[in-house]
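ok posting inputs for the pyridoxal-5'-phosphate job
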Amino acid sequence: MTAGASVAPRVAFGALREDYAQKRAAIDAAVARVLASGWFILGDEVARFEEEFARYLGVEHVVACANGTEAIALALQAAGLRPGDEVLVPANTCGPTLAGARLAGAAPRLCDVDPETLTVDAARAEAAWTPSLRLLLPVHLYGGVADAEGLLALAARRGATVVEDCAQSHGASWAGRMTGALGRTAAFSFYPTKNLGAYGDGGAVATRDAAAAGRARELRQYGWTRRDFAEHEGRNSRLDEIQAAILRAKLATLDAENRRRREIAERYDAAFAGLPLRLLRTRAHTVPSRHLYPVRVERGRRDAFQAHLASRGVETRIHYPVPLHLQPAYAFLGHRRGDFPVSEEACDTIVSLPIYPTLSEAQVAEVIEAVRGFFDANPGSRP
Ligand SMILES: *Cc1c(COP(=O)(O)O)cnc(C)c1O
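and the output
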């Protein structure tokens, strides 16, 4: 090998090819079944996936749709959002949370997050309250459950509606109830890297409310209440049969895969406990889905930390580098640096380590060794 040639990392950040290799028989059979059926849009596979995922979540209705961003828009509209209504969104999240809210016509009201979990809690939601705030859009970021108890109580007290962003929390729960079953409606993404991922785009709205489900169902297909008859203005936001068949096959292993993710997270937590790293806390009475495993390093040391891990063959990523209020697209909200200090600090210091079900014990040990090696060479204080 020549110097400078790119080498496959020993521990890649994701492993979708390995995941497919493990599930190949089931996935290939699912795709072949759809191809042979001659029916590709809103058929049996979508209907059965909706039933199966609803049963998994413990809700009455799931309405599958085109992607997670659309699911957020549909979930807000189905929950009663009218254009111009204020919706509370955490500043520390993935951009599509806000993109989806804007598609639905929401007026965003941003808030900061709790420094231990980096998700929204009732105290921060209340601090950002305005009289025109009608909906809360908490994000179960990284697969950690937001302050469900506090936010549901706050919403009930203030007459507001909770809509969950569950794009990273498939299978995570609070007090024995799945995320996606906690608010009026909830949005899921099946982007390929999510804990439950399609082989393309996909999303879904979950709800116990039949009227909300009906509204989402109309909106996702041209506003039709019956063929060629539009009661309300709608659009095309459908999940296709091939993706639905793949998701049915993959739902079967979601719980086992989440258990493996939690096992890896526990190994990391134990190995890193004494290092100058700040680990995320998991809220009481919650079971996280461990979609990501972010740690925070001392300010100014992130580049060196990532470079050291890369030199040991360990890929890392940043989730997320810029909080919503500092994204140029949302300059019209009038915020500036300093407005949401916890989110800003997180974006400046956070690094995600590899965590996925096919990660081997040897790879987990390599990640731990690489992280320890950095601090052996560069001791520092806990951020
Ligand atoms: C992935 C993700 C989305 C968007 O999902 P898409 O399917 O890519 O549109 C929304 N919110 C969060 C928190 C996400 O991680």
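notes: Residues 16-37 form the longest helix (22 residues). Confidence is low (pLDDT under 50) at residues 1-5.
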